[in-house]
Amino acid sequence: MLIKINRRANKVHFVVYLMQNLLSQEILSFDLGNFIPCRCMKLFIGYDAVLVHQLSKGLTQRIPFKLHGLPVSTAFHPTRSIFFISTKKNVRIYDLLKQRLIKKLETGVREVSSIAIHPGGDNVIVGSKDGKLCWFDMDLSSQPYRVLNCHPKDITRVAFHRSYPLFASSSDDCTAYVFHGMVYSDLNQNPLIVPLEILRGHASVNGRGVLDCKFHPRQPWLFTAGADSVIKLYCH
Description:
By secondary structure, this protein is mainly beta.
């Protein structure tokens, strides 16, 4: 991680890259990449906090909500001013304009590792360190609509495709799973979830496997990054 720090003023000037145990492991974008949320540890500012960097104005703001545990993963709603913060056990959803909690998702997993928001904004997937993937339909319940026991090791990342009905998970078991996940406009019809493919090819390094996965924004392709220092592209 590259950070420029003014030690006299005790300020972090600019964040270039995020490193484990300092900030969150992910860089998230919203509003054409104008906002970047990250987690700052007590080492730097005296308390755990979620900070949002607004690139257009060069400003950094702290999310004005009490953190109920250590923040693990964050995400913006794709179209509304809603912010998702996951701790090890729960996912809390806040309205940024009204500055209030609007929902809490109960995961029931050992420890949350990653979250992703469906492009429609009403469904959330949660990956965990016990290899479970939870799908939440927020219109139905604060409990998981479906729990998939797909990995024997930690899930490191979950992701939705922007335009195709696809989602994926990556894991330290050196695999990535790809699923069909159809969300219907009819609210009386539940989401359809179908396992499609198990992707292999990465080697284990010090017990770590696939560290990250991301879909191509337009094609049904998945990129994976492994602890073996290899980035792979899987095309259907």
